[in-house]
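Standup notes
- HV: blocked on the assembly model, inputs below
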Amino acid sequence: MKLYDFAPSSAAYRVRIALNLKGLSADRVDVNLTDSEHLTDAYRAVNAQSLVPSLEHEGAVLTQSLAILEYLDERFPQRPLLPQDLVQRAQQRALAYSVACEIHPIQNLRIRRYLASEMGQDEAATNQWVRHWIDLGLQAIETQAPQAGFLGGTQPMFADLVVVPQVFNAVRFGADVDSIPRLMGIYERCNALAAFADAHPSAPAS
Amino acid sequence: MKLYDFAPSSAAYRVRIALNLKGLSADRVDVNLTDSEHLTDAYRAVNAQSLVPSLEHEGAVLTQSLAILEYLDERFPQRPLLPQDLVQRAQQRALAYSVACEIHPIQNLRIRRYLASEMGQDEAATNQWVRHWIDLGLQAIETQAPQAGFLGGTQPMFADLVVVPQVFNAVRFGADVDSIPRLMGIYERCNALAAFADAHPSAPAS
């Protein structure tokens, strides 16, 4: 198994946590977005959208982090990421999509670059944009978060894998983390687990 | 079953197609985003993120269109939206997320409003922003699209349900549809089917 990875990428971070929780190991190929390595023809041949991560497994190349999470959960059913109950599955996915479809795409690097280069926005305005969407999105998730445990209940599940990297971004961008105490609690409890700590952007590549 | 719906909403449009394909009917409750009906306390009690659609079924309220699609496919297995093969499932999901996570969130109404009100962008700049992200995203999907049939093969599947509403937006915003001939073919073949035509934003509510 080969993971095209970039340590700070929130989407790649989700997949690293999933691999760790399932006890799977993948060779990591670094695709440095800051150096625009994702825009080379070589990487575009792997991933038509020039996005990280991609996962190579048994000759297939899988793209889009959430599709990779679903694939890993179906292909390697040990330590499930989604519960059995259909409504609970929908709730885990909805929380994950609340990040993946409502927050992360709006705050990521290519968007910030466009705001600066095409719309002449300075760093202060761009950072305010980032914090606005993070705050709006995470505060809505906060209202659905438990006071103890994890979004997945007694153990981290699908939603936790997607929310934790977003909370990491919230901290990094100076978003209003005081307004999301439940999510901060979940974030800390997750980070205390090896599967999350070893996947952290600051963890040395194994 | 009750669908909180708004005819022009791309996310609600996905769910309407899925219901039609599966032969399910839902009472439609109109939540007019243009009139900010999604921002009322009454609707926020239904959907903490103030987003459309929401689906009420058997006492549970489900949110996030893609989570609703997965739920409908698991709960009502007739006329599956996802194939059996795990890699093909991942590919269908990846194409859907390529729209739902990479294009749609960046071009939707609340973003355009922020660009205008907080960043002083005029309509031309905002429309250019919308077309930029639609073109970038759909052109990447075009490279993965077949010349005949559907993204799902011989019949529309999960990816088609998400791509068709995005192509509708591409047409509406004057994006470069000449550069996506395969997707335009799929769009036309889908729209010729009753399940898609009846879910179209311009179709009369049944």
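- HV (later): unblocked. The radius of gyration of chain A is 17 Å. The longest strand of chain A covers residues 2-5.
- Next: hand off to the docking folks.
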